[in-house]
Every structure is written in C-alpha cells, then in structure tokens.
Amino acid sequence: MFDFLEGYDLLGAFWTTVRLTVLSAVGALIWGTVLAAMRVSPVPLMRGFGTTYVNVVRNIPLTVIIVFTSLGLFQTLGVTLGARDFTTINFRLAVLGLTVYTAAFVCEALRSGINTVPVGQMEAARAIGLTFPQALGYIVLPQAFRSVVAPLANVLIALTKNTTVAAAIGVAEAAALMRVMIENEAQLILISAVFAFGFICLTLPAGLFLGWVSKKVSVKR
Q1: How far is Cα of residue 9 from the mean position of the Cα atoms in its chain?
Q2: Model pTM score
Q3: If both were cysteines, with which of 16, 24, 120, 180 could 98 make a disulfide (CB 3.0 to 4.6 Å apart)?
C-alpha cells in the first residue's frame, strides 16, 4: 500500500522541517523579545523602530520574505551566512527569513503579556533604583512569559506549518519532497495523507505539551 514511499527520504525531509522550526523558533524568540522591549521602551526612537518593524513585517507575505533572502541577499548581495555549499546557504537563509517574520508575532504576543503585569511593579522596581532594562528583565518579562505560553505555542505551531514556504528557495523539507512525489507518483491522496499526518505528529504534541505548561506556570492574579 505504501510502496510509493520507497526511494524517498521521508524522515530526512521531516527532520529538515524540525531543524527549520527549532532554529527559527529560537531566533524568533530572542529577536521577538528584543522587539517587545523596544515596543515598551521609554526611548521614542526605539519604540518607533519596534512599532514600524512589527507593522511592516506582519503585512508582508512570508513567501516574499523567503524569496528575498535568496534573490536579494544571496544572489544580489552575495550574503552566504558563513556557508559554502548551495544547500546549506538556502537552509540558513530560510531560517533567517522565518526568524525575521515570526519575531514580529512573538513580539506582539509578549507585549500583550507585558501589558498584563501591573504598572505598579515597574514603578516599584524603578523606585528601588533598578534601571529600565533591569526592571524589565528581572521583574516584568518573567511574569510576561508565564502569561503568554499559550499564545507562543500558537506561534510555534504556525511556524512549523510556515516552514513549507522554504521549498520556494529549494530547501529539501517536507513540502518540497511532497511536491516531487506528487509529480512522480500517482498516489495523490495517499501522499497528501502521509504528509498531513506527519505535520499533525509535529504540531499536535507540541501544542498539547505547551498547553499543559501554560496551565502550570500561569500567573495567579
């Protein structure tokens, strides 16, 4: 029944998808946290940059960003991100594009968490001599992260599915392999079912686990 899978590296394709997801998630979490700090910063220039970045990036299709990393950064500007072979270059550019795009959504999720922290806590931290970065890092952000685990889980699930766009620049992830198999095999429904099941196996456990974590670490108010 599943003889059509022979000769195709299905596990390797999904492993590439997992790597894209994990690396992009880490990058987006770091950059998104920085952007969220900018959005609530008392410095107008930083607030303006954070607001502009989020509003611009969220309204650009991910496909455009991914293609730009290949055509704009690599082919036009010669940016290789330290890689030498074409496959690694495209993989790293895809991670960069996914990070840049997803960070905007991480920022907004985290900013909503920051807004749930009572203003008095920041004022009290500043009153005892903490600087704004110290008050944000030690007092506000830990509480904000605990309150936005569920929204960040949704961002992670969306990121997992968004990795399929990396096929546009030749990254050999699951969607790219699916397209090749559909072109070469006649089992359209079975191929679609296999890849749909694969993505469910990636996203459903992560969503359930992070939902459980959200209940455990949520801030009681």
Answers
A1: 25
A2: 0.90
A3: 24
